[in-house]
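Q&A FORM
Asked by: J.P.
Topic: structure of UDP-2,3-diacylglucosamine pyrophosphatase LpxH

PROVIDED:
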Amino acid sequence: MKRNVELVVISDVHLGTYGCKAKELLRYLNSIHPKTLILNGDIIDIWQFKKSYFPKPHLKVIKKIISFATKDTDVYYITGNHDEIFRKFTDFELGKLKVCNKLCLNIHNKKTWIFHGDVFDASVQHSKWIAKLGGKGYDFLIVINNLINWFLEKIAREKYSFSKKIKNNVKKAVKYIGDFELTASELAIDNEYDYVICGHIHQPQIREVTTKKGSCMYLNSGDWVENLSALEYHLGEWKIFYYDDHKDSLQEDTSEEIQDIHPSDLMKLVTQFT
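REPLIED BY: S.T.
REPLY: Here is the structure written out as tokens.
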């Protein structure tokens, strides 16, 4: 039985990388019937397309998203830094699928501002090669982490996240996350938004931010590399969905097999699209 959800936000899926948890995401998407689906950046990782890696579960995620858009779900694809090639095609619409750089919605009379968040990242804006190098290092770290967690699962031990440990203990990382959340919230308050929703930093969050000028609700959908999280809005309430908290109740993917496609062929399709 699929759950009806008014609005779902996912971001930082990074299809095309070894760290992407496409199978888990597909199980989640197959479990819901969203009225609106917002893909808030870094869904397809164009930066990593030089690798010969784009397995069937990743293709199935794309197929599922297209399936939503061909039925009764409004799908918004907001561009991020890892899929910035789509920024050349802002405002493109195909049926219920729309591509944009940011999105402003009125959700039950609440002004809502949605964007990926890389605009706040100086390394992406001014030193892209450094950012890409960091992305490759992060992807390698996730591969090693996945191997270690595979072993930990075999011996019935709890999983461990290198990246979360670094984020929680390195002062610069903690400060960056805090500054990111505050900057987004201050801009939202200045522009009289009730909600501001981001991705980019892979840190799921729902919290109210108050300044001298007012207050707003800051939300972040997290990612599908480590946290496996999404934002859901239903019946006037925001929640963070964590896959690990619900995985036992989600059915395995039983959709039909699809043909393999080489990343270079998929890249040609993306280039034609843009």
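FOLLOW-UP: The longest helix spans residues 128-154.
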